[in-house]
């Protein structure tokens, strides 16, 4: 009898865990599809995207409502079938429009199933969420942060099918389930699911954020996260229910969220403590079911999932329009929100743990996956040049977060473009290291490993995980960063200076990205006049940081055409355009589908000369890459 009860409990925890895994994968994909397919490819405005984004979260209420009409078990069966089918179809589909629909369907099913998880018992939702996060992070770790949904070929399809089969088996093994719920007062802390998941996805489980802020390598960051997830579940097993531990954990979590863009040393320590702290907070805020009604739990959990979406929208929409606040304020609000809801739960923290020994052992098995990736990353062969080998080939490439013009993420295509150039030094723009808008993918680490670059430098401008990079075969001996003036525009831009050593010469390489639009109405009629006031100040900042040093190379997306005044400012300052020296043809770089404008450049100082320059034709990004060979004069 006891053994049967343990088997049922294990099945319920596994069921909840896999629901969480499919849900997190689907929500990440949905975020990216809204941004890169609906906004960029289809052309739907940001404000018009909001009701579309809200639809699957709000419509999720259909599942618990349906339980009244078709019965609890039948409604649960419908939700499970929809989640598995939509997630698998999302993996199989190649059309970005269909992928969006399937991701939305899987998200709807996931959100609708959340109240059902609580009816399986407190242990199912507490352990299920924590183990689901650990499994999800382990799977992403095996792909070095690349989600299964973005991995091509049959293996990811088999992996998703296997996860779906495991979910279906766990569902069949649930046994008899009775409806359980919470009251309005006792269930209030369930709203903490929104900030909890947002903090996990934005920060704690984010390989790129951890690496960018602390300075550890991407593979090391992912391995650390996987190990800490196991520690977190173990500590939640041992310490959950202790009010002093709960309060300390809550404080640690809030402080970590606030300090997430601060000192590297401080965040390095806090991010280690915060993953176990978050688990203890989650184990403390989930109440024990105490009613036989599903409605209140459904209201809280579906509302919480919707608030999660609102957090995500509020974090990223200010990049497109001025709302009076920036993403950092949303991140801090999430931290404060979980703190308030944690304090609300304090009087009623259950005195017994909801996590068993088998739960953290399962998480430990999953932690093996990032270890495999870590070993594979360590075995990657890199190419390094110590002595000067002329000409030095430079590339500038705005990779558009690796989403092609059709709205599909294809990092392999970006890597192929760069590899085909046989570049020595590459300046990249719009390179994410872990944004929800890009599937939380650490693209710098993936490109570095794929292309075998020994040396990289990165500067996140809008936040630590989106900005500019320099990849180099030559050693990088110094790095400098500079935020560019916003001049009333919503998006923070920046420039990254990496000094490379080629033999006995040191070359300053600056990768930058200027603002693309200021006043949309004026931009439609006179884009030069629209951008000139902004570009003048941004270029002045770049020139001041450069301070006339030679030799130097300035490359990037300047969002300005060759005959515009802002390009004239650079030329008057002494920079030379490689296209004027060695380019053939018009050199158009935007957009890649129908190139009409040259807005991406490679400039150099007068002690160097361009012997060749070209543009690489490809649909991997919405920009075309610029390539130039440079030699030293004299």
Task: Note the main attributes of this structure.
single chain, 12 strands, 55% helix, alpha+beta, 22 helices
What would you note in describing this structure?
This protein is 55% helix and 14% strand. It is an alpha+beta fold and 634 residues long. A hairpin with an 8-residue loop joins strand 11 and strand 12.
Going by helix content, strand content and strand pairing, the class is alpha+beta
Question: What's the mean pLDDT score?
Answer: 93
Number of strands: 12
Radius of gyration: 25 Å
Summary, kept brief:
The protein has 634 residues and is an alpha+beta fold.
Helices and strands, with pairings:
Blueprint: H1 2-42, H2 46-59, H3 62-70, H4 72-92, H5 96-119, H6 122-142, H7 154-172, H8 193-204, H9 207-214, H10 218-239, H11 243-258, H12 264-285, H13 295-316, H14 327-345, H15 357-366, H16 368-378, E1 392-398, H17 411-421, E2 425-432, H18 443-451, E3 455-463, E4 466-472, E5 476-483, E6 494-502, E7 505-513, H19 520-525, H20 527-546, E8 552-557, H21 565-572, E9 576-577, H22 578-582, E10 600-604, E11 608-616, E12 625-632
Helix pairs in contact: 1-2, 1-4, 1-5, 1-6, 1-7, 2-5, 2-13, 3-4, 4-5, 4-7, 5-6, 5-13, 6-10, 6-15, 6-16, 8-12, 8-13, 8-14, 9-10, 10-12, 10-15, 10-16, 11-12, 11-14, 13-14, 17-18, 20-21
């Amino acid at each position: 009898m006891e053994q049967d009860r343990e088997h049922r409990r294990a099945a319920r925890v596994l069921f909840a865990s896999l629901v969480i895994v499919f849900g997190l994968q689907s929500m990440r994909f949905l975020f990216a599809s809204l941004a890169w397919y609906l906004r960029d490819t289809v052309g739907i405005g940001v404000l018009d995207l909001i009701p579309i984004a809200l639809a699957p979260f709000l419509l999720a209420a259909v599942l618990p409502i349906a339980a009244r009409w078709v019965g609890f078990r039948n409604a649960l069966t419908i939700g499970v079938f929809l989640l598995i089918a939509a997630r698998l179809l999302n993996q199989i589909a190649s059309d970005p429009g269909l992928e969006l629909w399937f991701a939305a369907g899987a998200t709807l099913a996931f959100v609708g199933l959340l109240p059902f998880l609580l009816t399986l018992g407190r242990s199912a939702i507490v352990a299920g969420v924590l183990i689901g996060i650990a499994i999800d992070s382990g799977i992403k770790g095996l792909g070095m942060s690349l989600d299964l949904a973005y991995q091509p070929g049959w293996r990811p399809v088999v992996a998703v099918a296997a996860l779906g089969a495991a979910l279906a088996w766990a569902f069949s093994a649930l046994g008899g389930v009775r409806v359980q719920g919470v009251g309005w007062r006792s269930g209030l802390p369930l709203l903490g699911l929104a900030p909890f998941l947002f903090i996990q996805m934005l920060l704690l489980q984010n390989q790129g954020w951890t690496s960018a802020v602390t300075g550890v390598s991407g593979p090391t960051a992912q391995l650390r996260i996987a190990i800490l997830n196991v520690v977190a579940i173990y500590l939640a097993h041992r310490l959950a229910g202790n009010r002093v531990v709960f309060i300390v954990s809550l404080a640690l979590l809030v402080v970590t969220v606030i300090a997430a863009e601060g000192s590297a040393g401080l965040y390095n320590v806090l991010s280690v403590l915060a993953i176990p702290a978050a688990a203890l907070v989650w184990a403390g805020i989930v109440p024990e079911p105490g009613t036989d009604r599903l409605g209140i739990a459904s209201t809280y959990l579906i509302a919480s999932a919707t608030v999660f979406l609102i957090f995500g929208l509020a974090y990223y929409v200010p990049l497109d329009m001025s709302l009076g606040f920036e993403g950092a304020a949303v991140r801090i609000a999430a931290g404060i929100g979980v703190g308030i809801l944690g304090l609300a739960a304090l009087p009623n923290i259950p005195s017994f743990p909801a996590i068993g020994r088998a739960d953290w052992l399962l998480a430990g098995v999953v932690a093996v996956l990032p270890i495999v990736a870590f070993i594979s990353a360590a075995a990657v062969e890199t190419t390094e040049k110590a002595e000067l080998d002329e000409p030095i080939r430079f590339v500038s490439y705005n990779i558009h977060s690796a989403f092609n013009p059709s709205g599909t993420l294809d990092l392999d295509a970006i890597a192929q473009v760069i590899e085909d150039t046989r570049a020595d030094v590459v300046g990249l723009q719009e390179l994410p290291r872990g944004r929800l808008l890009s599937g939380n993918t650490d693209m710098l680490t993936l490109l570095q490993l794929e292309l075998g670059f020994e040396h990289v430098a990165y500067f996140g401008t809008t936040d630590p995980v989106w900005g500019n990079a320099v990849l180099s075969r030559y050693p990088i001996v110094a790095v400098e960063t500079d935020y560019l003036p916003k001049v009333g525009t919503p998006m923070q831009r920046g420039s990254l200076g990496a000094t490379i050593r080629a033999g006995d010469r040191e070359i300053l390489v600056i990768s930058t990205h200027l603002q693309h639009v200021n006043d949309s109405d004026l931009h439609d009629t006179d884009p030069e006049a629209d951008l000139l006031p902004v570009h003048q100040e941004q270029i002045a900042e770049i020139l001041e940081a450069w301070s006339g040093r030679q030799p130097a190379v300035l490359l990037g997306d300047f969002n300005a055409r060759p005959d515009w005044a802002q390009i004239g400012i650079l030329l008057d300052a002494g920079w030379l355009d490689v296209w004027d020296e060695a380019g053939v043809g018009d050199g158009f770089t935007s957009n890649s589908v129908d190139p009409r404008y040259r807005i991406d450049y490679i400039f150099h100082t007068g002690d160097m000369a361009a012997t060749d320059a070209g543009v690489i034709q490809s649909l991997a990004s919405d920009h075309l890459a610029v390539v130039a060979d440079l030699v030293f004069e004299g």
